[in-house]
């Protein structure tokens, strides 16, 4: 059969490796404009996923189109390794200007959140001569060996954690199995026994735990953690890959927690959909040695031109404040659904990083089965919206829409989520419908 007779999804199944798929619906794309994805066949679908976060300016934003077109037409090389290029150096200057920090600092560019965290792990171990790390159960820092090794997401249990990593519980106010004080006491005990603090290079922190379930930490917890680490010379690395760059309602999500990180990791939205990440950190770390963390096309002029357009647009369109405003409308709308649907146990997040924790029982807060979560997403797709799920029990609807989401689109999204829940409760989606979308 020639491919012209096959759907895009059928062709995808024939050529794209399963190891690289995380599919939540049959949605197959031929385009995207504004905050809408264009499905094969032309249907427009409201994007509440941001393509797992990077599309913070939506699709086809004029600022990105113009910057990329200009840069690719007159391309200043294809690598930052060998030659400085104007877009990369300008973006680094802008990143240093917007990222709080003291002293001499430098920027490393990568292609993804994974390689940026991977680089941070390696250079911190080398520069501090300390080989232990602290991270969290539920954390997701990447899918390369180094970044996986300091992650604690259940989707990565096929890979052993890095030797010497301490994974702490991330306190969840909705399911307080471990309080903030419990976790701090556990860390103190680790320091006294099996994890000498002077052997710890750094702690990796998500200021809002995304893939682990859209968890906003208890007030003061991360600050308390930072103060403990500071006492032992342990570097503070904040992973802003998914919730940074205005999404949380502030430019940096760590600002909600009063953190003063040594290193900040950017990704996803930085490139506005083009592959781009960055690590910002002190020179004594980032200048550890030449040719230490090389990726040939990292910092290329096209992706970094897109990054420059993203930062300029976040500022010119005041997207951090807009995320706070639209996020509140969206969150309030979802919370209002909770009055009608017992299944909505908690609605949480910051700005336009929003999670809906689905429960089978409001009293026990037992998560719903993953099939229920998957059915709501599948039905949402049928009704015209794209969103995903996260959480260690696959029971948290995740919303990471473009920061350009309008108030009307937020209301439209809430209506679709409500109708999806209604229809799933009415049995309109079968287990068979979602069987191939139960991926993590
Ligand atoms: C806080 C945080 N840090 C780093 C990463 C890794 O970023 P890349 O997937 O760009 O390598 C991620 C990626 N998160 C996953 C990517 C896999 C699919 C599921 N959804 C995510 O957002 C992240 O959330």
UniProtKB/TrEMBL annotation:
MF terms in GO: transaminase activity
Keywords: Aminotransferase, Pyridoxal phosphate, Transferase
Any matching Pfam family: Aminotran_3
Cofactor(s) for this UniProt protein: pyridoxal 5'-phosphate
Superkingdom, natural source: Bacteria
Family: Belongs to the class-III pyridoxal-phosphate-dependent aminotransferase family.
Protein name as catalogued: Aspartate aminotransferase family protein
Protein species of origin: Aminobacter carboxidus
